[in-house]
Amino acid sequence: MAIATALTLRAVFRLALRQTEGLIASVLQLLGLDLPVPDHSTLSRWAETLVVPRPEARGAPVHLLVDSTGLKLCGPGEWLEEKHGSKRRRAWRVLHLVTDADTGHIVASALTD
């Protein structure tokens, strides 16, 4: 179960194996759990043979909800830029989400400029 979860997170966030190992360790530490973390070499071996079941396709039509929202990228010094005026154009991204109306699961997502 832990290996399948780690490999799923790796696929979702497009992480390298060592980054996946670090992410899992950080999450467990933040949760205060003292559980073993799968090593990157173990993840590599299991990634070749592990079959992750995909959700079954339904025969009924699926109702999808599409939403887009703007996200402003913030960083250190954001307050000073606001106070004294911005010398550069603010960075915005648009997050597009497609969700299943019945289950609320995110079906697709995209982040654009």
Automatic annotation (TrEMBL):
The lineage of its organism: Bacteria, Pseudomonadati, Pseudomonadota, Alphaproteobacteria, Acetobacterales. It comes from Belnapia rosea. This is Transposase DDE domain-containing protein. It comes from the Bacteria. Residues 2-75 form the Transposase DDE domain.
